[in-house]
Amino acid sequence: MSVLQIPTRPVSVAGRLRWALADGWTVVRRNLAHLKSQPGQLIAELVFPAVMVLMFGYVFGSAIPIPGGGNYREYLMPGLFGMTAFTGVLATATVVAQDAGRGVMDRFRSMPMARSAVPFGQTGADIITGALAMAGMVVCGFAIGWRPHEGPARTMAAFGLLVLLRYAISWGGVLLGLMIKEETLDKLVPLIFPITMVSNSFVPTGGMPTWLRVIADWNPVSAIVAACRDLFGSPGTTGSAHLVWPLAHPVVATLLWSIVLLVLFVPASVHRYRTVDH
Length: 278
What we know:
Blueprint: H1 13-37, H2 40-60, H3 72-101, H4 104-110, H5 117-143, H6 151-179, H7 182-185, H8 189-197, H9 210-217, H10 220-232, H11 245-248, H12 250-275
């Protein structure tokens, strides 16, 4: 009579890391497989940028002056890249909350898998879907006349920063999804969008009231948008008389914001997954 062998937890650090990565990749593939049967999330992420490009680029663009001159749609595209990187937190939180509410997380906990694998798998899948959405936005940008002007190296650096920031923010989405039920997340949408709007994404911050300009200038969304405009060579990178440190050094500021978010959210998300019973 054969005996069922249950995998035991590796003892060494390298063994535990390989175990977590292997299990995390399994969760990534599971989430991507769900997109094939339920593609609504991916379609929404692809359609939303196109709607924003049309609404802001053509409806509002003619009424918004650009510091130093230039085409508003070229000014707009880095703002939309930064905005969608940040709002991805809601998509991640929704997927996690759905799994938690349907008991999927409990089934994961009952299996002989690394406890950190599920949060890592969720954020890994988000990077892939986020990259597809970003590619769709690039297509929209080229269609309306946007072009990167600083060469392939700086262009790839800009997209690298966007992916890094989205990955860091997706960990906040995992924590949010583990803390809040699915039906409550919809009520948070009006709270997320002001964070992206109070920034330099759509308009220069120089015309804002002083108290609001301070918030906008120190908003991490403003840092990633300024970094992208600089690396893409888009309009709006000069002509500001009130450059605070994050806007004067946007690439470094984006890297620091990403590190801070990862340091805060990665251990908090893993701890929440391990300890909270849904």
